[in-house]
Amino acid sequence: MQISTVVNPLERMHPDEWALYQPLVGSTMLELGGKKNVTLGIVYKDFFQSLGYRHTSVDWNGDHGALKLDLQLPLGLGTFDMVTNIGTTEHVSSQQPVWRNIVEACHIGTVFISTTPKQGHWTHHGEWYPNENFYEDLAAMNGFEIERINEAGAAPRGMWHCRMIRRVITSFSMPVGNMYHNII
Question: Fold for domain 9-110+118-181?
Answer without folding.
Answer: Rossmann fold (3.40.50)
